[in-house]
DNA sequence: GATTGACGTGCAACCGGTTGCATTCGATAG
DNA sequence: CTATCGAATGCAACCGGTTGCACGTCAATC
């Protein structure tokens, strides 16, 4: 009655061999090098195998060949909407090559991440670390043991895939400048984030080129709440438009503005980053889109290339971003009428 | 220069044994049954081990013990916002017991799901299948080989964790009735979905109890777009409030209503399901919340219990839902002064 | 002083595959 | 008729651990 247990006794290669009247080796070869065997032998073995529900044991195979057929993917927070599309794409890419993927959630902690990597090391052929919290040193140490690909983390010598926000941010600034804005504000994310640093720099540069004033307001963590919380600071700058570190922050800002009777985009323009919300906000959010799915796919693909012994050298893939104009940007109030 | 390769040669147990001047077995025991060895022997071995960077090989251990230390988690779509919190919670729960988790994305296809399960079988101790697309028969077959827990899928005899929307939906209806609504509409999701069937039934029952008229409008797939698309149908029913299959659909409906100049909640009330958007919409969405994270935790916990040989019998865990009132519900226009 | 037992450790088989090498056998060549 | 060769298959070692059992040592017991 109990449903527990029932494990272990999966049929083994010996079971197949015995009922087929051949040796273990032959069964093995029937699966791995059918060409080496007689055609009808192979057919018979496969037939028997599937009839008794035999599936080669991944673990045993891995032990003897060293080819685990597994890879690991580690992210800081599965629930952060930026990651699911990335995870999904990486997943499917690995699947195309019949790899199984371990998922690790570092919970924003380098200790946890280090623990996970160690746990994974002995059963994967390679790993992808997203926005890793580890030190360069630890990353290099791990990369010595197994092929490693980084996402949004730039460590020279380690293959990495980076989302280059510069282009999209420049487009956003050009867009705002064209609408007539003269003073904008960048609402920054975590100081330690590579992406944040890059975006802030891009805003500064872009603003200079378009002769816009730029203020910086710090939202400690990237979230809806913190976006909502910094609205007073934003309004205090006198700016007429904001570029937020990410969409969640932008959305919080929109709510905060609405609470104060500031209408978007009539009175104030808002631009997000990451495009994780699609057109789902109201008004729908103008944002810098970055194809996080493509990022995941590229990283996994790069890793698989390394596993295929195709040397990738000091790969540094960057992915472009682009502005998606929706309905939260408009000319500043002063320009009207 | 190339960063590829560098795999394999992780230090082995023999390496440690050799430099420690002991046998393989002793090293093994130093890790698994330290109490059986001399205290200083253990200390020395562990010291040497960490100094040469030795970590026990998960795969080899699994092969000889049959305890893989891995579990698999399969979902139809990682990118569906309902799943990430669930995945995250299941992840962390497994981690507490030092289990690694494989993530599988069935891509809404039973073939893909079946393939993944077979791939996982030989390297996991058990698996959690979320909203499985497999037939009862296949599920039972797999459950024979490895402990299996289902989420939002009700197969008698197989342990399962189900989100019971009934309570939350009833609360929602009571809430709408109290506000003075007389005619509501349920915007349904996929016909094949267990959750959808349950929610629709709950709406029907609740409406009867509160003597409300209820119409059903079908949104084929649960998405922002389809929600937006069915707005004309919704308005055609003459209802003054809608309960949507999920939050994405609800959000699409809100946008569709706004496009037509129908103001929420002044002219029309909207209630979502799943609470995946938090308070991030504007106006913030009243919704039936369901703690998908707790669902993931419970399912993984149940699986681990089974692995611990604690028989769980024909477990059928149901999780309650509850209404979260935010700003998309208000009295119907007619009721107002 | 011999017996007993606890303790610490080594030996070797085993988990379920893979693979280099040896073996068998029929066919073709000489 | 025999030497040769290639195709098909078996043997056994190995991957890196785990674990039942045997062995040796030393102290407590009679």
Characterize the structure shown:
Two copies of one chain form a homodimer. Chain A is α/β, with parallel strands linked by helices. Chain A folds into three domains: 1-56, 434 Repressor (Amino-terminal Domain) (Orthogonal Bundle), CATH 1.10.260.40; 70-163 and 292-319, 3-Layer(aba) Sandwich (Rossmann fold); 165-291 and 323-335, Response regulator (Rossmann fold, 3-Layer(aba) Sandwich). Chain A has 13 helices and twelve strands. In chain A, the strands form two sheets. A six-stranded parallel beta sheet of chain A has the order 2-1-3-4-5-11, with helices on both faces. A six-stranded mixed beta sheet of chain A has the order 7-6-8-9-10-12, with helices on both faces. In chain A, strand 8, helix 12 (247-259) and strand 9 (269-274) form a beta-alpha-beta unit. In chain A, helix 1 (13-20) packs across helix 2 (24-32) and helix 8 (165-179) packs parallel to helix 9. The N and C termini of chain A lie far apart (78 Å). Chains A and B meet through helix 4, helix 5, strand 2, helix 6 and helix 7 of A and helix 4, helix 5, strand 2, helix 6 and helix 7 of B. The first copy, chain A, binds a DNA duplex (30 and 30 nucleotides) through helix 2 and helix 4.
Secondary-structure topology with pairs:
The structure is a homodimer of 337-residue chains.
Chain A lengths: L12 H8 L3 H9 L6 H13 L6 H8 L4 E6 L7 H14 L3 E6 L4 H12 L4 E5 L5 H10 L2 E4 L8 E4 L1 H15 L3 E6 L5 H16 L3 E6 L5 H6 L1 H6 L4 E4 L2 H13 L9 E6 L11 E4 L2 H16 L8 E4 L2 E3 L13
Parallel strand pairs in A: 1-2, 1-3, 3-4, 4-5, 5-11, 6-7, 6-8, 8-9, 9-10
Antiparallel strand pairs in A: 10-12
Helix pairs in contact in A: 1-2, 1-3, 5-13, 8-9
The first copy, chain A, binds a DNA duplex (30 and 30 nucleotides) through helix 2 and helix 4.
């Amino acid at each position: 009655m109990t449903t527990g247990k029932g494990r272990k006794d999966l049929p083994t290669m010996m079971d197949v061999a015995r009922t087929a009247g051949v040796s273990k080796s032959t069964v093995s070869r029937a699966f791995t090098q059918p060409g080496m065997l007689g055609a009808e032998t192979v057919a018979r073995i496969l037939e028997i195998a599937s009839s008794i529900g035999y599936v080669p044991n991944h673990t045993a195979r891995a032990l003897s060949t060293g080819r685990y057929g597994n890879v690991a993917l580690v992210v800081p927070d599965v629930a952060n909407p930026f990651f699911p599309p990335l995870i999904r794409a990486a997943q499917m890419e690995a699947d195309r090559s019949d790899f199984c993927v371990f998922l690790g959630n570092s919970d924003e902690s380098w200790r946890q991440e280090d623990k996970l990597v160690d746990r994974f090391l002995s059963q994967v052929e390679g790993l992808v670390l997203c926005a890793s919290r580890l030190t360069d040193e630890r990353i290099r140490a791990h990369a010595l043991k197994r092929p490693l690909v980084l996402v949004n983390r730039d460590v020279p010598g380690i293959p990495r895939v980076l989302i280059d926000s510069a282009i999209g941010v420049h487009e956003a600034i050009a867009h705002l400048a064209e609408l007539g804005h003269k003073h904008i504000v960048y609402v920054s994310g975590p100081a330690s984030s590579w992406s944040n640093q890059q975006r802030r720099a891009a805003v500064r540069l872009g603003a200079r080129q378009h002769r816009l004033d730029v203020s910086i307001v710090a939202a400690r963590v990237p979230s809806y709440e913190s976006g909502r919380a910094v609205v007073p600071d934003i309004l205090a700058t006198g700016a007429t438009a904001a570029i937020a570190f990410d969409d969640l922050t932008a959305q919080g800002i929109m709510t905060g503005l609405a609470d104060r009777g500031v209408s978007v985009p009539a009175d104030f323009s808002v631009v997000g980053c990451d495009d994780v919300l699609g057109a789902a906000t109201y008004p729908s959010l103008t944002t810098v889109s970055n194809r996080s799915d493509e990022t995941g796919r590229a990283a996994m693909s790069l890793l698989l290339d390394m596993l295929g012994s195709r040397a990738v050298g000091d790969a540094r893939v960057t992915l472009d971003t682009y502005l998606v104009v929706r309905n939260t940007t408009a000319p500043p109030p002063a320009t009207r009428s």
